[in-house]
Amino acid sequence: MAKLWKYGMIIFLLSSLFFHKEDDLMMAIMETPSIALDLVLTLVLSASLWNGFLHIIEKSGFMNYLSFLLKPILKMIYGSIILKDDIYACISSNIIANLLGLGTLATVSGLKAFQKLQQYNSHDYPSREMMTLVIMNTVGMTLFPSSLFMLRKQFESQSIYQFYPYMIIISLSILVIGLLVQRMIDHE
Amino acid sequence: MNKCMIIFICIVFIDAVIKKINIFEIFIEGVKSTFSIVISLFTTMLSFMLFVQCLNASGFMQCLEILLKPLCQLLNLPIDIFVLGLLRPLSANASLSYLYNFYQNYGPDHSLSLLATLIQCGSDTTLYVVSLYFSSLKIKNTRYAIPLGLFLDFLAIVFALIIYLKTFA
Q: Which chain B residues in 108-137 lie under 8 Å from chain A, judged by CB atoms?
């Protein structure tokens, strides 16, 4: 990523000289900080609100009620390792954070779960459960994309939820495809 | 949607009150802990916003446009969509900055903005997630994580395009 940024910037700066767009480019550069602040403000405000709710869900033990629903599904996905309580705790909070659309916060519990899974890993390469966790997080299945809703509201969208049903179809189907493909190429 | 969310939050709150948990303090704690990410988020967002702004203003896009013209005309889409599709697996912040530009240029309810939103939320950033997870444990062998993740990103974009062509276009 750092490489792309580095060479990309050089190419853009050179091409602006080449196309005589120096004025446009300078204007765009000077606009950048305030636009970035706008976007970060929207993201952080939305994240702090939903993280408040997420905190309550985690601390109040609400996940235990959902476990009868979540555990069979997770068992199907991860296998019997999920029955260990510490792993279940990390993975379930990773999933809830993902479902609420808090990608940055999902990473924290995701990394914890990844380390826990490594402790139970008997191979010298990443186990299938670890790969599953990574696949789940690269798909990033979301039920409530809070930051996108907030951004759309910021732009005074007429129908904030218009993209929602399609989004569920897309991310659910690539999640299922991803897990199926993984099963096919990785059987222990 | 709104109703579901409110019912869900309501159940969580009532449950917590029954268990005699101080939800006010826990809520505040959660909000407070979010602000620890502000500085790192702002720095990366600023650098990628700079990247996107330069990309748009430098005339480099026109070059790409000429190169990818047949594909654009075939699907009747602007070049921006393809750039967004390329940025998506690389960095969430870069593609989000790009989505922001989309909303600014077309407005959030334009069909192209909806397509961009679908590309943005259909999948997560493969390269970032894979490198973060494996480097946290200093594991070199990522096995099939990157090819499979990129394949899924590609599928998500294709699905989004199909939905766009079938319903919005």
A: 108-109, 114, 117-118, 120-130, 132-134, 136-137
% of chain A with per-residue pLDDT over 70: 98
Examine the domain organization and report whether B36 and B9 are in the same domain. Answer: yes
Does the pLDDT value for residue B101 go beyond 80? yes
Of A29, A135, A158, the CB nearest to B149: A135
pLDDT 10s digits, B111-124:
888 888 888 887 77
Predicted pLDDT of residue A1: 66
CB atoms B54 and A164 under 8 Å: no
State how far residue A179 is from chain B, nearest Cα, in angstroms. 10
- Cβ within 8 Å, pair B118-A166: yes
Min distance A174 CA to chain B CA atoms (Å): 6
> Range of B136's domain?
59-169
Whole-number Å distance between alpha carbons of B108 and B115: 10
- At A188 the pLDDT is 58
Contact B4, A48 (CB under 8 A): no
Boundary residue ending a domain (B30, B58, B86): B58
Give the residue among A114, A141, A127 at the shortest CA–CA distance from A182: A127
Q: Which residues of A touch B37 (CB under 8 A)?
A: 44, 47, 104
Q: What is the pLDDT of residue B169?
A: 64
pTM above 0.80, yes or no: yes
Number of inter-chain CB pairs under 8 A, A vs B: 264
**Closest in B54, B121, B153 to A28, CB measured:** B54
Strand, coil or helix: what is B26?
helix
- B18 to chain A, any CB pair closer than 8 A? The answer is no
Does residue B162 sit in the same domain as residue B81?
yes
**Domain end point (choices B58, B84, B103):** B58
* pLDDT at B134 > cutoff 80: yes
Higher per-residue confidence, A1 vs A113: A113
Q: Are residues B29 and B85 in the same domain?
A: no
